[in-house]
Write a structure and sequence with these properties.
By secondary structure, the protein is an alpha/beta fold. It has two domains: 287 residues, Alkaline Phosphatase, subunit A (3-Layer(aba) Sandwich); 102 residues, Gyrase A, domain 2 (2-Layer Sandwich). Helix content is 33%, strand content 19%. It has 19 helices and 18 strands. It has a seven-stranded mixed sheet. Strands 12-13-15-14 form a four-stranded antiparallel sheet. The longest helix has 18 residues. It is globular. The two termini are 26 Å apart.
C-alpha cells in the first residue's frame, strides 16, 4: 500500500494499520510538539479520503478533493459496482465497534466485516460532527470546507453560532441564522459530494432522521442530493433503504443512510455501554431483517455496502474545567471560548496572546495542550490544501486541546457527558471503515 500517509508501508492486517495510525505523524505535525498520546489525522487514510473512494467505485472523480484511499483497501471489491449503500453511523468509533464485533460475531455487521474488509481510519481535527460529517460530504478537511468546529465565531455575521442548531450560541430555537442572511448552500466554498457526483451521472439519495432532514446544517451537506427521505428508527430506516434501492436498481447510485442516535446514546451513557451496544444491536438486526434478507439477486448484483463513522468517543465522565473559574485567563480574552469542549478556540485581546499562552502553560498544562492556531493551520492539523478564506478567523489565536478526560467548559452541568469527542485521543480519532460486496 502506498500513499502520502504510508510511504513504503505495507499493511498486513487491521491491527497493523491501527498501530501505524496511532504512531504516525507527518514532519510538519511532529514539529508542533503535540503530546505523544495524541493521534493526528493521517492524510491518505482518513475520513477525508472516503468521498473520492466512493466516487471512483462508481466511475466518477472528485477533482480538488482529498485522494481516494489506497487501492489495497478497496479496489478488489469494486469491480462492476453500480450501487453503493453507504451507512454513516455517528460516533461509532473503531475501538468500541471492533470490540463489539468480536463479542457478538453473529450480528450482520460483524459477518459483513469478516466477509469483506474492516479497517480503521482516522477522523479529522477537530473530531466533532460539524467538522467531520462535512468532510464526509465533501472530501475536504475542516480548514478547506470552513466548518472548523461546533461553536464558531462568524465575523461576517458578528455572532458566535452553534453550527449544529444553526442559531446563535445560547438560543434554543433552531435555524435562527437562516433569517439573518446565512444561506447553507452558499456557506462552504468547496463543492458537495452530491453536487460532484450528480454532474457525472451518479444519483445520490439519502436517509436521515426526520428531525434533522431540513435543518440548516443538513442543507450544507445535502447540496445536490437527488432525494432526501426521512426516517424515525433504525428499523424503518433499513426498510426504507431497501425500498429506495429496489426503486432505483437501474441507476448508478450512491444511497446514504445517516444515523445520529449512537452518538446521542454515547454522550448519555458512554460508548461501549449496554445502551450503546443495544443501539448498535438494533441497527445490525434491522439491517439483517429489513434490508439484507429482503434483497433480490438483481438488487444484490453490483451492490456494495460501506459503513463509516465521522469520529469515535472517549469513554468515561468528562472532567470540566470552567473558563469562568480562571478570571486571569479570561482577562486576556476578547471573546467567549468557541470551538468544542475538547478542542477550544481562544481569541486573545490585542497584545495579550503571549500572556494567555503563558497562563495556560503555567496553570493548565496537565489538563490541556495549547498551540497557536496559525501554526496548527499551516502544519495541516485541520486538513491539507488551500484553506477557506475565513478559516483562520474561525479558529482564533490559540487552540486548546483536552488531555485525558478534560473539557474546557462554559457552563455548569447537572451531570458530565459520559462520551466525548472533538479531541485527539485514539478513542476519538480512530473510526471504522467496513466494505463488503452484497452479491
Amino acid at each position: 500500500m502506498q500513499s502520502g500517509c504510508l510511504p513504503g508501508y505495507l499493511v498486513r492486517s487491521a491491527d497493523d494499520l491501527e498501530r501505524y495510525l496511532v504512531g504516525q505523524r507527518s514532519p510538519a505535525l511532529a514539529a508542533l510538539g503535540l503530546p505523544e498520546e495524541f493521534v493526528v489525522p493521517c492524510h491518505g487514510l482518513s475520513a477525508a479520503n472516503v468521498p473520492a473512494t466512493l466516487a471512483e467505485m462508481l466511475g466518477a472523480r472528485l477533482p480538488g478533493a482529498a485522494a481516494p484511499l489506497p487501492d489495497d483497501l478497496w479496489l478488489d471489491l469494486a469491480d462492476g459496482v453500480q450501487r453503493v449503500v453507504w451507512l454513516i453511523v455517528d460516533a461509532a468509533g473503531w475501538l468500541h465497534t471492533r470490540e463489539w464485533f468480536e463479542e457478538e460475531p453473529d450480528m450482520s455487521l460483524a459477518r459483513l466485516a469478516r466477509d469483506g474488509r474492516f479497517v480503521p481510519l482516522t477522523s479529522v481535527f477537530p473530531s466533532t460532527t460539524t467538522s467531520a460529517l462535512t468532510t464526509l460530504w465533501t472530501g475536504y478537511g475542516p480548514a478547506q470546507h470552513g466548518l472548523v468546529g461546533h461553536m464558531m465565531y462568524l465575523r461576517e455575521h458578528g455572532a458566535v453560532v452553534d453550527m449544529l442548531t444553526f442559531s446563535p450560541a445560547g438560543e434554543r430555537q433552531r435555524d435562527q441564522m437562516l433569517g439573518r442572511g446565512l444561506v447553507p448552500e452558499e456557506f462552504s466554498p468547496v463543492p458537495g459530494l452530491a453536487e460532484a457526483l450528480t454532474g457525472q451521472g451518479v444519483s445520490v439519495r439519502t436517509l436521515i432522521n426526520r428531525d434533522l432532514a431540513v435543518t440548516g446544517f443538513s442543507r450544507i451537506s445535502y447540496r445536490g442530493v437527488t432525494e432526501v427521505v426521512r426516517f424515525v428508527t433504525p428499523a424503518d430506516m433499513c426498510a426504507r433503504l431497501h425500498r429506495m434501492l429496489a426503486e432505483h436498481t437501474h441507476e448508478r447510485l450512491l444511497l446514504v443512510g445517516y444515523m445520529h442516535e449512537v452518538d446521542n446514546v454515547g454522550h448519555l451513557d458512554g460508548p461501549g455501554s449496554p445502551p450503546w451496544r443495544a443501539q448498535m444491536r438494533s441497527l445490525a438486526y434491522s439491517l439483517e431483517r429489513e434490508f439484507l434478507s429482503e434483497l433480490t439477486p438483481e438488487e444484490r448484483r453490483g451492490t456494495l455496502l460501506m459503513l463509516t463513522s465521522d469520529h469515535g468517543q472517549l469513554p468515561g465522565a468528562g472532567a470540566s474545567v470552567y473558563a469562568a473559574d480562571f478570571p486571569e485567563l479570561c482577562r486576556h480574552l476578547l471573546l467567549p471560548v468557541t470551538g468544542s469542549l475538547r478542542a477550544a478556540y481562544l481569541y486573545a485581546r490585542q497584545g495579550q496572546l503571549e500572556a494567555a499562552e503563558r497562563y495556560l502553560r503555567e496553570h493548565l498544562s496537565e489538563q490541556f495542550f495549547a498551540i497557536r492556531s496559525q501554526a496548527a493551520l499551516d502544519a495541516g492539523l485541520l486538513g491539507t490544501g488551500r484553506a477557506a478564506a475565513e478559516a483562520a478567523n474561525r479558529i482564533g489565536d490559540l487552540i486548546v486541546i483536552g488531555r485525558d478526560h478534560y473539557l474546557l467548559d462554559q457552563r455548569k452541568r447537572e451531570r458530565p457527558p459520559m462520551g466525548m469527542h472533538g479531541g485527539l485521543s485514539q478513542w476519538e480519532m480512530l473510526s471504522p471503515c467496513l466494505i463488503a460486496r452484497l452479491d
